[in-house]
Each structure stands twice: as structure tokens, then as C-alpha cells.
Amino acid sequence: MSRLIVISNRVSRPSKAGNQGGLAVALAEALRESRGTWIGWSGEVTDHFTGHIGFAEDDGVKTATIDLEEQDIDEYYNGYANKTLWPLFHFRIDLAEYARDFEGGYNRVNQRFADTAAPLIEPEDIIWVHDYHMIPLGQMLRDRGHRNRMGFFLHIPWPPTRLLVSLPHHSKLVSSLFAYDVVGFHTEEWLESFRHYVEKEMGGRVEGDFVTVGDRTIQAVACPIGINAKEFAEAAVSKAARDMGDRLRASLQDRAMIVGVDRLDYSKGLEERFNGYARFLKDHPEHHRKVLLTQVAPPSRGDVESYQQIRATLDSLAGRLNGEYSDVDWTPIRYVNQGYPRDKLAGIYRAAKIGLVTPLRDGMNLVAKEYVAAQDPEDPGVLILSRFAGAALQLKDALLINPYSPEEMSDAINRALAMPLDERKRRWRAMMDSVEQQDISWWRQSFTERLMAVDRDTARVEPEPTEG
Ligand code: GDG
After folding, report:
1. Distance from residue 262's CA to the centre of ligand 1 (Å)
2. Burial class (CB in 10 A: 0-12, 13-18, 19+), 170
3. Catalytic amino acids?
4. Whose CA is nearest to atom 19 of ligand 1?
5. Fewer CB in a 10 Å sphere around the end CB: N or C, the chain?
6. CATH number of the domain within which 425 lies
7. 409 and 449 fall within a common domain
8. Based on the domain organization, do 201 and 234 belong to the same domain?
9. Is residue 198 part of a domain?
10. Ligand 1 site: residues with CB under 6 angstroms?
């Protein structure tokens, strides 16, 4: 078995798996099996970058991390990654900042990651690079002579060509993806946009999964990430989850709870969600005092101004809404800016009659899948899901909505509250089948199997000859 090397911005400590997402757990499992290494940023700041690599072994997983300078973090992480690429790839060119320093810092830090990884890589290793922080890394490793099988997975959407061309030096960035052998996206939609760019902007050719530019052919595939459905369903009946459920039920007093769980991010459509819920309260006075929305939103990327703004906007929206509708014994929104351990989170999902997931754009959205996995099969809740989340292509039995329309959201909440048990069960079963079949192990295997099938001598898989 080839050794797997995972490279991503942050490295997760497997021993903290109880608090981590499925991705970290799945990658840790693959790394453990192959005796591989996970390389990335430690999350720590250093005065002067020395190239020192911190090696550790945590629950059978080897990690190699570097500390970054403050300027690196400003320009690479808070800068190019989160002020330029994140908004642009979520179709928000109004928020994207194009600064030369950011791009310079992004390339410098990617070179640092390449220098860190290079001596740790053996010729037989399979290298799997993750996400928008690291797009040019594969090319930088090739420049250092590494001919390994290399894959890249993008966890966020790929934007339409018309938007992507607003990025200075976009073609350089996209060209660097051709250093990989396999490039993965969550959905056909993001893949289509990538192919469109390659054909229109690079004069490339698409044949099935194969994309050719010049003399370089790579595979570009849609491979939707999943969750560890079995583990999550078990977490939802754990003692911690049941205790959380009891605590919630005691405070709800027969009111129906709607739940939202999101990192505090403008892409998650939180403002639109609050507006949709406000519309529901306006349209349906008969539901006053009988429902409430619990929104769990741990802050993220607080150093970036647009994130400070969304936080301020939501604080004021939640305050206004509660001011307008609350009574001495009823508050329509519980807005919580703290995170919970995963088993408690599973208990919160299970206690909710409705999961309200309304991103304006999302690569996949794992919260939607977690909500489904946490439900009681005998009395499942209803998932209301934005049609702009990657997950909507798999979870077709959710109530799919346009998050920009408060009326649609209001109607969907009303419909979900009245949905008969039979229909809830039927919809839940269909969604759970999908969540169970295309789970996190399926995703990881689908991607790594493709990568392993690449012929290392040519570092590519030839396309099947086409008829005629
Ligand atoms: C990116 C893409 C894609 C949230 N609050 C708490 C908590 N969470 C966990 C959730 C879920 C994860 O964070 C969020 O995952 P999402 O998929 O919803 O969104 P992003 O963070 O934006 O992730 C996304 C994903 O990458 C994977 O490819 O699906 O489209 O944007 O697992 O449960 N976890 C805990 N407490 C919290 O309070 N423990």
C-alpha cells in the first residue's frame, strides 16, 4: 500500500476527534492505515520563519507542522485565501479584495509548504492536497522534481468563468492545477464551471473525466464529500446527546424548535435566514409562542472585516426580531455564538423539528447531512435546504428553497411544521440512504482509488480512445 501524504492549511489532531469534523477523522484513518503523514500549518505564529518542522505522532497519525510569521498569516490566510479566493469562489466579487501583497504572500507561503513537504516525500507516496489555500502547491512540488501521483480536492464551489476572470492572474492560478493528476470537486455544477473555464480561457479539451491543455491531461471529477453517518447517528443517541435533548425539551415546553448550525460566515445565508424567519412570524401569528429558532453560530475568521460586519448585522437583526416579537415567556430566536462538542451538537439536531440550512452558496454543506443522520427514524424532523448548497444535489427530498426569498422560506417552515409523519419518514429515509451510501469513507476511497490508478511513469491516465 502506498503511503498517503495529506497537505492542508491546518492539521487536525486525531486525539481531539470528538470535537472534529468527519473530514479530519476520515483522513486520519487513511493516514493511520498507510503510515502516512499530515503536513500543514500548526496554527502558531513565529517571529522569524526558520523552516523548523514540528513532528508529532498523535493517535497513530504522524503530523509535520510549521509555524508562520504574522505577515504570512495576514497576506496568505487572512489575505489571499479568505479575503480574495473565499469570497470570489462563493460568487461574492463585491467582497473580494485584490491586493498584490496578498498574492505574493500566498505564493511565498505555498513555497514554504513545498519546502517543508519536499524532504518528507518518497517516490512511491501518494500526495493529496486540500483546498483553496494550496492550489499552486502541486506545481511547486513538481518544480522540485517530485513525480509522485498527486491529487487536489477543492472543498468550496468553483465560480463561473465570468466571475473568475475578475481575479488578477487567474490563468496562472488555474494552470497550476494541471500539475496534479486528479482534481476533485463536490458536484457536477462546480466541475462544469471548471471545464467551461478550461475550454474558454485556456483552449483546453474535455473528454469525459479527462481534461487536456497543451500536452498535459488530468482527470477532473465530481466526488461529493460525505459524513461518517453511522458514527453520527450513534452520537445522536449517546448519553451527552440525550442529556442535551432533555435540557432542551425542558426549556422548550412543547414548542417546536428549528435549528441552524453554521460557522459565522456570510456565505451561510444567516442574514437571509433571520429575514425568512421574521417573514414567517409576520405571516403566521398562529405559530407565535409555539416555535423558536436556535441558531448556533461559532465565530470564525474574526480578523477579517467582512466577518466582523456579518457578526454585527446578525447581532442587531436577532435583537430587533426578539424585541419585536418576544413576550415575557417566549423568545423567538436563541442566537448562540459558541460551539458545542459533536455529541452535544448531535443531540441539538435530534431535538429540532426542522433543520434550517440556507447558504447562498456552499461547496457541499455537511450540517445538512449531519441533521439527517441525527434524526430519530420513528419521528424524523424536516430538512429545509438551500438549492445553492452542493448537498441539494444529493438531498433531493429536503424542502428545497431559494434562500434569497423570505416568502419561500416562510412557506417552507409552515409546510414543515404541518408535515404528516408518513411524509417525514419517507423523505428522511430517502435522504438517509444517500447519506449512508455516499459517506466519508466512500468519498475518501473514491478519490484515492482514482489517484492510485494513475500510471506513475507517465504520471497520468490516458483517456480511452473515442470511437470515430
Ligand atoms: C467547507 C465548505 C464543505 C459547526 N458548528 C459547530 C461544529 N460545526 C461543524 C459542523 C460541520 C462543520 O463544522 C461545518 O461544515 P460545513 O460543510 O457546513 O461548512 P464549512 O466549514 O464552510 O466547510 C463546505 C466542507 O468544507 C467539507 O468539504 O461541505 O461546503 O465550505 O461538520 O458540524 N462542530 C462542533 N460544534 C459546533 O458548534 N463540534
Report:
1. 7
2. middle
3. 155, 362
4. 365
5. C
6. 3.40.50.2000
7. no
8. no
9. yes
10. 19, 21, 23, 155-156, 225, 261, 263, 296, 298, 339-342, 345, 362-367, 370
Q: Which of 91, 263, 349 to mutate to test the pocket of ligand 1 (most atoms within 8 A of CB)?
A: 263
Q: Check: CB of residue 191 under 8 Å from CB of residue 222.
A: yes
285 and 355 in a common domain = yes
Cα of 120 to ligand 1 centre, how many Å?
A: 30
In a domain, 466, yes or no: no
- The pTM score is 0.95
| 385-397 pLDDT per residue, tens | 999 999 999 999 9
User: For residue 123, how far is its CA from the centre of ligand 1 (angstroms)?
Assistant: 34
Half-sphere exposure of 104 (CA within 13 A, CB side): 4
Same domain, 74 and 183: yes
Residue 125 CB: number of other CB atoms within 10 A? 20
317 Cα distance to chain centroid:
26
Report if residue 116 sits inside a domain: yes
The domain of 373 spans: 229-437
Residues in the chain, total: 468
Residue 183: CB partners within 8 Å, gap ≥ 6? 151, 152, 153, 154, 177, 194, 218, 219, 220, 221
pLDDT digits (tens, 9 = 90+) for 52-98: 999 999 888 899 999 999 999 999 999 999 999 999 999 999 999 99
